[in-house]
Each structure stands twice: as structure tokens, then as C-alpha cells.
Amino acid sequence: MESKKKIILTGDRPTGKLHIGHYVGSLRRRVELQNEGDYDKMYVFIADAQALTDNIDNPEKVRQNVIEVALDYLSAGLDPEKCTIFIQSQIPELCELSFYFMDLVSVSRLQRNPTVKTEIQMRGFGGESIPVGFFTYPISQAADITLFKATTVPAGEDQEPMLEQSREIVRRFNHIYGPTLVEPQIMLPTNQVCCRLPGTDGKAKMSKSLGNCIYLSDTAKELKKKVNSMFTDPLHLNIEDPGHLSGTYTDEQGVEHEYQNTVFIYLDAFCEDSDFEQFLPEYKNLDEMKAHYMRGGLGDGTCKKFLYNVLNSRLEPIRQRRAELEKDIPAVYDILRRGCERAREAAIETMDEVRRAMKINYFDDADLIKEQALRFKKK
Q1: Nearest CA-CA partner of 80 in 349, 317, 343, 328
Q2: Is residue 279's pLDDT more than 60?
Q3: Phi then psi for 290, rounded to 5 degrees?
Q4: What is the pTM of this model?
Q5: By CB neighbour count within 10 A (0-12 exposed, 13-18 middle, 19+ buried), where does 328 fall?
Q6: Which CATH number fits domain 220-325: 3.90.600.10, 1.20.1250.20, 1.20.1050.10, 1.10.240.10?
Q7: How large is the angle between the packed helices 262-270 and 286-295, nearest 10 degrees?
């Protein structure tokens, strides 16, 4: 079934404040899409129910971070007048739709999902210790998407297996019950650097537990400290030495490691030509700066100072908006409450269609009641 409307759905797990990896990977693009106005509706949700699947023993962590994520959303530029921001757990229809979807997916199909395999490995779940709620994440995600008839889901390539499973569920549902739900399509990042920004220590993943994040809410002082400690090129010992954007090095134990110069990855993701005019007029663009670094004569300190100025110029407006929002937290909760109400309106409408298609709308089906009455009258 094709939707006549163009609808976006996207969201984040509230397990911590959002960092610049979230911003460059998805949040910045969401704000652009919201402001471009090419979509009829846009839903952005805080996935607290999904976060509980592997934080069930620490609900306070999730509870506290719901407001943190909401503040990050609003301070980054999401406008509750242009998009619907809601909390996943406050939409009970999601649970109902997930329950029905569970009958359409086999255990073996879930086990083959490469994204599920990766996520299980990352969290250290072994064998029978995997929470069922976490294992069935592709099913609940399909419910998140289809309940709001989303046509488009912005995500990285690593999420394509999840989207394909959602499409499979939609196809099977529509085949059995008739055209009711919409098949979603993925919207990949336009800049591949934005797919997964590494941590400040050069490790592939930016995470709170590794202490290698730059948060949207970091102060200028915190930002400068983190940028100054960033991993660059371990072979660039002197300014006059040729620098490398990536390569290999051998540690003290004789183990060889591949590396990427984190400073330049961040510059690829954030800087624009206009930043050079403002902060580093010796160069016209990043290509010129990279060329100088690679032939030698450009120090890491200069590169980090430039990166700090670029990042700070992006984060300062976000910090200022956050500071204003923090003055009236009840108003932020009111935004979330109103978003949940709007989301529920759409959810209720879809579930009415689902129940009718599945023929479980017993009390709304006057023909059924009349038919059964005649059937028993004939006895």
C-alpha cells in the first residue's frame, strides 16, 4: 500500500545526553528536513521503552535522560510546531501492534538479522541471557514506523536490515489482511563521514561509557579540553614532519594498529569554506589545509585550535537555547505531553484500520452483529 502523504519518523534512545555524533549523524539533518517542509508530517520520538530492554534494572537512568534528550532536540532546532515530538512509552497502541506483528515473524528470521546480531554482541548478551524485548526489537521498530504510516526513515546503512524486516512485516500483513500498512524506505546520510563519527580517542564508537564524547550541552571550556586531547597522527612527532590522515603504527608491544586522524574526520563532518575566512584565513578550504598537513609544516595544535573554533561556533547557539529552555522545565514537559497527544491521535486512527483489517473490531462491526444475530435466530 502506498501512502498519499510523505511522512518521516525517527528517534533516539534516552540513555544519555546527545553528543555531536548524534547531531552530525541525524539531528542536524532532521532540522533541515523539518524546515524544508517537503514532508506532510514528521515524527521524532524518544524511545524510552526500547531503552528499557537493556536497562530494565536502571529505569531511573532512562527517566532522567528523557528530559535531557528533549532539551537536546529543542536546543538543536527541532520545532514542536513543525514536528511531533513524543515519548514512545506513552503510546500504548505501539504495544498492541507489536503484539500482532509477533505472529508474522519467526524466531529464525530474527536470529538472521545482522543488526540484531551486532547489537547483541556489543552489549555482551550471551545465549539465553538475551532479553526477549531486546531480541524482538525489529518487531517493535516495525510497529514504531508503521503505526504512523511513515514513508521515510532517516538512518545509516547499518539499519537497512531493520528497515527491510519492517517492509517484510508490512508485506505479510497486507497480503493476509489487505492493503492497510505502508512500506517504509530508508533515507541514508548524504555525507558518508556523518554515518558514524568516532570518539575523541580515535576509537570507532563514541560512547558515554568510553568517555570519548563531545556533548551538545558541553561548555566552551569542556569542549576545548576534549578537542585538545583528541587523537591525531601518532607518527606526526614534529611540526615539520609530514602528517597523515590515516595509516598504521606499531605500539610499544609491537602490535600494529590502523588509525584515522580524528581531528580531520571531525573537520570533514563540520567545517565549511566560510570557517577558514573567519578562523584560519591562511587557507581557502579544507583541501588546502590537508595538503599542508600532509607535506609537513602544520602542527596538530593549530589544527585542533581551528577545530575547536568551528565546533564552538556550531554549539554556542545550541548552548544558548538550552540555557533558556532549562529555565522552564515544566514547559518542556508540556511540549512533550502535547506531542504525545498528537501522536496518539494518529496511532488510534491506524489501529482502528488494523483491527478492522484483522476483523477484531467486534463492537464497531454492525454487519457482524447483525449476521450473528440472524445465524443464531435460524437455530
Answers
A1: 343
A2: yes
A3: -60, -40
A4: 0.91
A5: exposed
A6: 1.10.240.10
A7: 170
